[in-house]
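Ticket opened by: R.M.
Priority: normal
Category: complex prediction / small molecule

The reporter submitted a protein together with arginine and asked that the result be attached to this ticket for the collaborator who will pick it up next week. Submitted input follows.
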Amino acid sequence: MKLWGGRFSKATDGLVDDFHSSISFDQRLYEQDIQGSIAHATMLGEQGIISKEDADQIVSGLRGILQDARDGKIQWHVDAEDIHMNVESLLTERIGEAGKRLHTGRSRNDQVALDTHMYAKVACMDTIHMLEDLIEVLLDTAEKHLHTIMPGYTHMQKAQPITLAHHLMAYAQMFLRDRERFRHAYAAADVMPLGSGALAGTTFPLNRTRVAELLGFSSITMNSLDGVADRDYLLDYMSSASICMMHLSRFCEEMILWNTNEFHFVEMDDAFSTGSSIMPQKKNPDVAELIRGKTGRVYGDLMALLTTMKGLPLAYNKDMQEDKEAFFDARDTVVKSLMVFTAMLRTVTFRTADMERGASGGFTNATDLADYLVRQGVPFRDAHRVVGELVAHCIAENKTLLDLTLPELQQFHPAFESDVYEAISMKACVERRNIPGAPAPDMVMQSIQDARSRLAQ
Ligand code: ARG
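Result attached by the on-call engineer:
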């Protein structure tokens, strides 16, 4: 008979058992479920709601189940529906009468909320650690390439010279923001919902703060309806995960482009590339492509839960059981993607000579030539037009701006002097951009130091 079978005169249809059971996926919560029950039983005993002896028996019974579950010795059952009832029936099977007192003053509604709050905290910590590993690799790599010049792009057209360090540090900023978002998701999960009961709390004098303390929560929820109906903490995680995947995906897209024969800016390590079944020459950046592809999957997980939640009246509704698969999938995908991406980035070879060559084509120093004229007293709008005319001239003559002779330059404007060549060398273009946030090596070094101190917090 079901744990709730008292008012039923018929067994559940086999189709229904199979359809509504969540044990196939919520067994992943066994650790949180059992730890939560240990804390609940301990508190019930301390409050005199159940006897000290019963509480002790329950706690040691649960510890035994936890150990067996960790050792993979437990067979979970579909007809016990979910992880909560599986643990409770197993406990009663093992310790008898006392096991039946565990659920005093509690509902599966606040129990599942407790379990997922606990699991979300662990997921946030795991994700934050992965992000920190990635950020460290970025900072170390950036520090090695403070002087590696490469073209910066807008509209996928060469724009102005930057450095590889500057480009990598752009991603470091994104991942630092992601880290803050996961910290916020952690704080949202770090509120203890047990004691919300089914929806309206309980008549027993539970010490909720004690349960929070036993389980390492910072505070308790303040409304029992919200305590069981809220899934914001999972949505916070999943929206952070979606944004983080978007960042990874942009980075992957650039790695894929840079790895092409046309760009030739990076070479992916053999260990992070794959071959073709027909074309013997192929070496494909599958890892980066797959991360880019999995981004859609995490967005889908977020959309699925947002959509599940949008029409739900208070408080708990069974629809909410759909939270777990989406959340677990998002967590697994983002953690794995971060892990693989970091390992891939560690082994990438940057073709610095090709990057520097890339920067010298495409008139990336045109703005600097205009800025030169401005320093000579020419209004910027005029300078912009003069340099535009020079670029058109160079295109017609198949030259770069640095190829032009001084008399040639002076035909376009008399303000050009012999120091112009130094002013528009790639090195000068980068080094003169030396305000905070700009690509000059000193400034990028400051941003690396700033990132290091933020990481240490
Ligand atoms: N398996 C359920 C879930 O994941 C647990 C809560 C069930 N509560 C209920 N009243 N049916 O949401």
